[in-house]
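Fold it.
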Amino acid sequence: SSHSHFGPELVVDDPRFEAMQQSRMTAIFALTFMALSQQALSAQVTPVQKVIQLMDGMLAKGKQEMHDEQVQFAAFKQFCDDTTVEK
């Protein structure tokens, strides 16, 4: 053959190439995850904790509003019952 070889040709379908790419992506993901985890640990409140706090606040507010509605409805029902008895 008249053309020279400078080593093995890089073929994208080569399983070794795909495995190397996968291991590089895994390493990048692991390093990114570790960096984000470290950042989250150093933060006072993580974004997930903030969401949980907001949801807890919404739950408490919803329970209070439901209680207030039950009290208001009970008073209204009592009024209706009293008015019906009078008629």
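The chain is about 80% helix and 0% strand.
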